[in-house]
Amino acid sequence: MTGQSLSDGRGLAAPIDLNGTGHYVHWGVVQVSVANLVVIGVMLVVFVAALLLPFPRGRGRR
């Protein structure tokens, strides 16, 4: 053991500062946070991949 305990908070610290203000993107009346925009982008990538990837086929079926 290195002597660092989890009770001091450094062992569970986030890789980025979560106490700061959020960053936003806005187009006219539409305003969305960058974090939500990243989540929406990942969801779209997964959706397109689910449409394009072939379904698995069972063996021995005709």
Please describe what this structure looks like.
The chain is α+β, with helices and mostly antiparallel strands. The chain is built from one helix and two strands. The chain has one helix at 34-52, and strands at 24-27, 30-33. A two-stranded antiparallel ribbon has the order 1-2. Strand 1 and strand 2 form a beta hairpin. The chain is flat, with a radius of gyration of 22 Å. The protein starts with 23 loop residues before the first strand and ends in a 10-residue tail after the last helix. The relative contact order is 0.08. The model has no long low-confidence stretch (mean pLDDT 81).
What keyword list fits this structure?
62 residues, 1 helix, flat, 2 strands, alpha+beta, 13% strand, 31% helix, two-stranded antiparallel sheet
Oligomer: single chain
Describe the biggest sheet? 2 strands, antiparallel
What is the H/E order?
Answer: EEH
The chain-level mean pLDDT equals 81
Shape: flat
Q: Widest sheet: strand order?
A: 1-2
Got a strand count? 2
How much helical structure, as a percent, in the residues?
Answer: 25-40%
Q: What proportion of the residues form beta strands (DSSP E)?
A: 5-15%
In short:
This protein is an alpha+beta fold. It has one helix spanning 34-52, and strands spanning 24-27, 30-33.
Give the arrangement of secondary structure elements.
Layout: E1 24-27, E2 30-33, H1 34-52
Antiparallel strand pairs: 1-2
